[in-house]
Automatic annotation (TrEMBL):
This is Ferric-dicitrate binding protein FerR (Iron transport regulator). It holds the Pfam family FecR. It comes from Butyricimonas faecihominis. It comes from the Bacteria. The chain crosses the membrane at residues 91-110.
Length: 407
């Protein structure tokens, strides 16, 4: 086998990590590490959390150089042109969750070992998507008249759905504020849209004010098509990451189950699933106020790196410092766990793979998990990794996974 490029080496390293590499692949990787100075050190860094941090830093550099407000205007101003796919190519590469960990590894091998990258980095992802069947109902757009549109089944380069535009192969929603009629008239009832992601779904959209939102699986976001002069208010069930366009005169408000988060312009994450005992609001940049809907006097102000947690049963609001990489992991296409209880872990897996876990163990609290995994991994490979690191045994039968103590 000849000298491999970074993409091929990255795949073998990932297989080694999840113990799925063949004997031939193991020999190839061993030969690669011996053939270059410092490659063993590179391998050690790749399998540590440092790779995730560096990937986020690289992505932040890219995002910082991209004017998304201008990008939105460019998209909406060139709907009739057929070269849209070329103009969006550089952001679509970063846009989704597929093969995120592979990208991390590939960047490390390229940066520190000098291995050649594939001629077209986008091929790492596009080829994979084209080989998978399109599922019509993982992402649903509900229009103001109640019409439901399956977003994953749209193939067109661009498609106008009333006041929204579905853009490119990534099928992002972009709302055009310039086409709003009566948006400034507070006497008119605003048109409300809703995006719903089911098991394994992931979606991103740009609201009419330029705010960017990423929606995790099994989540719902309800929002007006156009914002008037007052507050910009949306409702969330599930999990979403927000990058809010600053507007001092119009605060942005997110209502999520029992808490309300109020911002002017910042980036933050909210996790508010109905089957979880806690609701979390985590601040990345700027400043936000978080308060229980039932008692606004218990408001807390968050600084970057802080997380507000609302205990649904105890009716208690608390603040703590958190690892932002772990909070962000889902948006980058990863599961990331830090001494998480098995029930917390399996609830996340259920939302992505569409399975149900049945416990047949003596004590669920004895099992906790560390590490991170790509959402592009098979369910079986992740469960095997849990077992190999001292976890329980898993037996899958259809859409049910039985959890038992090891013999």
């Amino acid at each position: 086998m000849g000298e491999l490029n970074s993409h091929q080496i990255a795949r073998i390293i990932l297989k080694m990590r999840y113990e799925t590499a063949t004997e031939e692949e193991k020999r190839v990787l061993e030969a690669w590490m011996k053939a270059g100075k410092g490659r063993q050190t590179i391998y050690d860094r790749i399998v540590s959390d440092e790779s995730l941090k560096e990937y986020r830093d690289l992505k932040a550099e890219f995002d910082g150089a991209t004017d998304y407000g201008k990008l939105q205007s460019d998209i909406l101003g060139t709907l009739a042109k057929r070269d849209r796919q070329r103009k969006l190519q550089r952001i679509s590469w970063w846009g989704g969750s597929v093969a995120a960990v592979l990208l991390v590894v590939c960047l490390f091998v390229y940066k520190y070992a000098g291995e050649p990258l594939p001629e077209k980095m986008g091929e790492m992802r596009v080829a994979k998507i084209e080989s998978e069947p399109i599922i019509q109902d993982k992402v649903i757009l509900v229009l103001g008249d109640g019409k439901r549109v399956g977003m994953q089944g749209l193939h067109k380069d661009s498609l106008r759905l009333k006041s929204a535009v579905v853009v490119g192969a990534e099928a992002k929603l972009v709302y055009d504020a310039n086409t709003g009629q009566g948006a400034e008239d507070v006497s008119l009832e605003p048109e409300i849209n809703k995006v719903i992601t089911s098991t394994g779904g992931f979606y991103s959209l740009i609201l009419s004010d330029g705010t960017r939102i990423w929606l995790n699986s099994e989540s719902e976001l309800e929002y007006p098509v156009f914002f008037g002069k007052g507050e910009r208010r949306v409702k969330l069930v599930g999990e979403a990451f927000f990058e809010v366009t600053p507007d001092v005169a119009r605060p942005f408000i997110v209502e999520a189950n029992e808490i309300r988060t109020r911002v002017l312009g910042t980036s933050f994450n909210i996790k508010a699933y109905k089957d979880e005992s806690d609701i979390y609001a985590t601040l990345f940049t700027g400043k936000v106020a978080v308060e229980p809907l039932a008692d606004t006097t218990r408001k807390v102000i968050l600084q970057p790196g802080k997380q507000a947690g609302w205990d649904v049963q105890a009716r208690k609001l608390s603040v703590r410092e958190v690892n932002l990489d772990r909070v962000m992991a889902w948006k980058e296409g990863m599961f990331m766990f830090n001494k998480e209880n098995i029930e917390v872990v399996t609830r996340q897996i259920e939302r992505w793979y569409g399975v149900k876990f049945i416990y047949q163990v003596k004590d669920r609290n004895q099992y906790t998990f560390n590490g991170y995994f790509s959402k592009d991994e098979t369910l079986e490979s992740i469960l095997d990794a849990f077992t190999y690191t001292g976890g329980p045994k898993f037996r899958k039968e259809g859409d049910t996974v039985y959890v038992t103590d090891p013999l």
